[in-house]
Design goal:
The complex is a heterodimer of chains A (118) and B (433). Chain A is an alpha/beta fold. Chain A is 41% helix and 31% strand. The longest helix of chain A has 17 residues. The N and C termini of chain A lie far apart (35 Å). The longest helix of chain B has 48 residues. The chains are: A alpha/beta (118), B alpha+beta (433).
Chain lengths: 118, 433
């Protein structure tokens, strides 16, 4: 799988492309943690764009869960957006969409950024 | 009977791949070739044994050569200093004779030990060794007559370098071989232990369904090559009902196997004290969240079936919804709970649902190892194929359907490696057999 990271102001956007299976999960988890640590200046919001994500295994779900937890600890907003139907189903089936914010598209996800003073 | 008395039958020699030479093989007839070859082979073996650096002679010889190289190069330099007393000259002559004699002996030994003589003579080392003795044979002891030849003797330094290189390579090769061997041993041991763990994983699952009138149940787990964390369970509850579990731990390998054992034990213990599946999952989730150092989680479908009334109560912690095949051939999926996987977050509630089974209905529980079994073309087995199998088989023993689906999945996957556990449970109620 391929992962790209962009930073706009206090929002970090991570794009995941391909299959997030057991083999890819460790690297994905590392990237999420680095994005959350934000090289000194932690972002206010981390959005994972899943528009090009084909498949998520249980190991992939675990990476999302760990990221959601550390984001919560650090007071950083964490959200996913643009899930394909098959991936969306995995999130719904596992109950993960009940504990991680899932938005239909990128614009909606970015609009939900917490205000700096909030 | 002595050996000389054994008489070979006619034609036995003709079948001998290496015919023995006749007794009088003293002429250059083709029959003498094997003898010459065997002399050469014996010589080669002898020379090779003498040069072996791991034997005492080989090591001593090597040290002698190294000392002589240093001595000889030093003497070429000292000899060139002007104003040296005349009496020193015979010393240098003796020294040169000694060096050339030993180097020549070494050269001959190396030629003899070579697998193919030509390969040695034309190799870098062969050329260097020859250069080290050539000036003597070209000009005799007093190479002063030909200044260039005398300087050639300085090239003996090269001999030193090839030696050092050769020794370093030999040492590194030995180290690598040692390390590879210990790695291979560790790998074999690890594999053997994993094999035991896999066998244990299957062995702790119940082998048969509890005997209840009107119930026919069967299950099977085919472990993946890398250890997965699937499990199923049949739990006989104190009130006569049966608890059925189908679960899948996230991740693979030993952590997943451990978490599977912990999850299964806790669920089994708590099932006896919580008659409602939703409450049982909620409680199991609390216990798992409290003892989860690896941050794993497990998807669990848990249902409690009453074999007297046919009432099935279920709750789902993030697992693939099972299929209910009605006696009329229709297949429905037990959807709609959306509960979170267990072990991820505490304080979660698990909604509970109830469904009435009718005689002849079949319940099929499975893990994603079934629907996400991939074939060599990277296509998944998928839900449609599973539903088709379930739909097509309303009759027969539960075990037969389990086997049928397992075979269908393995035939579909073909030569593709099995990356996840494949687990299935079938329960048929009220079937008249």
């Amino acid at each position: 799988m391929k992962i790209t990271v962009e930073t706009h102001a206090r929002t970090t956007l991570l794009t995941a492309l391909g299959r997030l299976d057991f083999g890819a999960a460790a690297e994905f988890q590392k990237q999420l943690e680095q994005a959350l640590a934000g090289a000194g200046t932690a972002p206010a919001l981390l959005v994972v764009d899943c528009a090009a994500l084909d498949y998520v295994s249980s190991a992939g779900l675990r990476a999302f869960l760990l990221a959601a937890r550390s984001a919560q600890r650090a007071g950083i907003g964490f959200a996913l957006c643009a899930l394909r139907p098959a991936v969306r189903e995995v999130f719904d089936l596992s109950g993960f969409s009940r504990i991680i914010a899932v938005h239909t598209d990128r614009a909606t996800a970015l609009a939900h950024a917490p205000q700096p003073d909030a | 009977m002595s050996a000389s008395e054994i008489r070979l039958p006619e034609g036995a020699l003709a079948r001998d791949p290496e015919p023995r030479p006749p007794a009088n093989a003293d002429t250059a007839t083709p029959a003498s070739w094997p003898i010459r070859l065997s002399i050469r082979a014996a010589l080669r073996a002898r020379a090779e044994a003498l040069l072996r650096p791991d034997r005492r002679f080989g090591r001593a010889f090597e040290n002698l050569i190294l000392a002589l190289i240093v001595l000889s190069v030093a003497s070429v330099i000292v000899e060139a200093t002007p104003g040296l007393p005349a009496w020193t000259r015979p010393l240098f002559h003796i020294e040169e004779l000694l060096v050339v004699a030993v180097f020549s002996a070494e050269y001959l030994l190396r030629v003899a030990a070579a697998r193919r003589i030509r390969d040695f003579v034309f190799s870098f080392q062969g050329a260097v060794d020859l250069i080290a003795i050539a000036p003597f044979f070209l000009a005799g002891i007093d190479t002063r007559a030909v200044r260039a030849l005398r300087l050639l003797r300085l090239l003996r330094v090269l001999k030193l370098q090839t030696r050092v290189l050769e020794n370093t390579v030999a040492e590194r090769t030995r180290e690598l071989a040692d390390r590879n061997a210990s790695l291979a041993r560790a790998h074999a041991q690890l594999n053997a232990e994993l094999e035991v763990a896999r066998a244990l994983q299957v062995a702790i699952l119940p082998a048969s369904f509890p005997l209840k009138p009107g119930c026919d149940g069967a299950a099977r787990m085919i472990p993946a090559t890398t250890m997965g964390g699937d499990f199923y369970d049949f739990i006989e509850l104190p009130d006569g009902r049966i608890g059925l579990v189908m679960a899948d731990v996230s991740g693979k390998g030993v952590p997943a196997a451990f978490f599977m054992a912990v999850a299964r034990t806790n669920l089994r213990d708590l099932a006896a004290h919580h008659s409602e599946p939703g409450a049982c999952l909620a409680q199991t989730n609390e216990v798992l969240c409290a003892q989860n150092p690896m941050d794993l989680f497990v998807t669990v479908f848990y249902c409690v079936f009453d074999p007297v009334t046919g009432v099935l109560k279920y709750a789902n912690g993030g697992h693939n919804p099972p299929y209910l095949r009605r006696a009329d051939g229709s297949v429905e999926s037990l959807r709609g709970t959306g509960g979170l996987v267990l072990g991820a977050m505490s304080g979660i509630e698990y909604p509970q649902h109830t469904v009435q089974l009718l005689p002849g209905d079949r319940l099929v529980l499975y893990t994603d190892g079934v629907t996400e079994a991939f074939n060599p073309a990277d296509e998944a087995y998928g839900e449609e194929r599973l539903i088709a199998e379930v739909k097509a088989h309303g009759d027969g023993a539960a075990a037969a359907l389990v086997e049928r689906i397992c075979r269908s999945v393995t035939v579909f996957a073909g030569s593709a490696p099995q990356s996840d556990d494949i687990t299935l449970t079938v329960l048929t109620w009220g079937a008249r057999r």
